[in-house]
């Protein structure tokens, strides 16, 4: 049996996730109608220090620059622009629920041409549209770039992503979403992680808090709240009371592994049935060591290269046949494998084999 030892390999992160403590309903569900809306715009960044778009490679930059100048009363018909301090960008943001005219939101700026950096640039007034084609916000301001770059005649160095950045509070809302929240007769609570047990617990907790039946579970991902039955002044008052009710959620037994970083994350309910584990590695080594043979002095012979090859098979030490008994938790198995010095990649292969054998009772996710 693989026993728990205190030494744990630092290269592997093991997280035993426990949901013993109650969680607020607001952290478990999304309220129907309370959601954000995506916005997007196409604009121009100016003031770059020679790191903007090459106009020949990005003709759309010249087009938008001409349009902006003409709107400002500058006639540029027939002119040829060759500046290096402008860049065409996409501007994205999320319009939060219940946002009002005049409030400000953050925006993200991303270059779409061959600009090398947006560091120090300023976004010119850019309208932002929703999927319905209407303008809901206008963005403008100085960009905070996410990196830096420098180059010389023979080398270039880049840190982070200098072609993307943000403008905190860079867009001002000019139009509101038409939605009368006060007229709702019922509100659906959509679980972020659908589960019948969790949905039932939410239903019971809400009804117990109000002292009467005001909610009903529809399925594993939906609980409907009857606003009239709550006897509150408005839907906002009802949700303000509901969202702070605490519920202990239920979670599936799940194991998530990341092969690139060697990370293993598991829930506390993961169990392993009786199974035997044996692991080892074979390494085949082939080395070429050609031998050069020279002829004797004043002889008629020539230089000859004699091939020499060394071939060997080495078996690296692995895990002998180890037995995992019934009811052992996966965290105990991982701790034992760590104590034996098993590498993260080999550990993931072992977990895959245990799952394939039907002994790992959990959802197994590989990223």
UniProtKB/TrEMBL annotation:
- Which keywords has UniProt assigned to this entry? Bacterial flagellum, Cell projection, Cilium, Flagellum, Periplasm, Signal
Alphabetical list of InterPro entries matching this protein: Flag_FlgI
Q: Which GO terms describe its cellular component?
A: bacterial-type flagellum basal body, distal rod, P ring; outer membrane-bounded periplasmic space
> Where does the record say this protein resides?
Bacterial flagellum basal body
One GO BP on record is:
bacterial-type flagellum-dependent cell motility
This entry's Gene Ontology molecular function terms read: structural molecule activity
Q: Where is the signal peptide?
A: 1-20
List the HAMAP family hit by this protein, alphabetically: FlgI (MF_00416)
Q: Which family does it belong to?
A: Belongs to the FlgI family.
What is its quaternary makeup? Answer: The basal body constitutes a major portion of the flagellar organelle and consists of four rings (L,P,S, and M) mounted on a central rod.
Function text = Assembles around the rod to form the L-ring and probably protects the motor/basal body from shearing forces during rotation.
Q: What protein is this chain from?
A: Flagellar P-ring protein
């Amino acid at each position: 049996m693989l026993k728990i030892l205190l030494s744990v390999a630092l290269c592997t992160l093991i997280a035993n996730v426990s949901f013993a403590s109650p969680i607020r309903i607001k952290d478990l569900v999304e309220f129907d109608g309370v959601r954000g809306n995506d916005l997007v715009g196409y604009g121009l960044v100016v003031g770059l220090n020679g790191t903007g778009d090459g106009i020949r490679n990005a003709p759309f930059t010249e087009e938008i620059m001409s349009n902006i100048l003409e709107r400002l009363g500058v006639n540029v018909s027939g002119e040829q622009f060759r500046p290096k301090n402008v860049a065409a960008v996409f501007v994205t943001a999320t319009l939060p629920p219940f946002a009002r005219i005049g409030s400000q939101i953050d925006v993200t700026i991303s270059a779409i041409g061959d600009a090398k950096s947006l560091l120090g640039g300023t976004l010119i007034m850019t309208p932002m549209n929703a999927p319905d084609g209407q303008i809901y916000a206008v963005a403008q301001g100085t960009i905070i770039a996410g990196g830096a770059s420098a180059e010389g005649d023979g080398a270039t160095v880049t840190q982070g992503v200098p072609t993307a950045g943000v403008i905190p509070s860079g867009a001002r809302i000019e139009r509101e979403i038409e939605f009368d929240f006060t007229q709702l007769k019922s509100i659906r609570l959509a679980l972020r992680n659908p589960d019948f047990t969790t949905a039932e617990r939410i239903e019971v907790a809400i009804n117990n808090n109000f002292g009467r039946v005001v909610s009903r579970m529809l399925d594993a991902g939906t609980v409907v709240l009857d606003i009239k039955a709550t006897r509150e002044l408005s839907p906002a008052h009802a949700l303000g009371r509901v969202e702070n009710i605490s519920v202990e959620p239920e979670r599936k037994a799940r194991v998530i592994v990341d092969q690139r970083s060697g990370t293993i994350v598991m829930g506390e309910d993961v169990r392993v049935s009786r199974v035997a584990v044996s692991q080892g590695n074979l390494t085949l080594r082939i080395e070429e060591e050609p031998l050069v043979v020279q002829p004797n002095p004043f002889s008629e012979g020539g230089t000859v290269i004699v091939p020499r090859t060394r071939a060997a098979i080495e078996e690296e030490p692995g895990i002998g046949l180890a037995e995992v008994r019934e009811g052992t938790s996966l965290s105990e198995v991982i701790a034992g494998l760590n104590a034996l010095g098993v590498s993260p990649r080999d550990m993931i292969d072992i977990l895959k084999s245990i799952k394939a054998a039907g002994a790992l009772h959990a959802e197994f996710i590989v990223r």
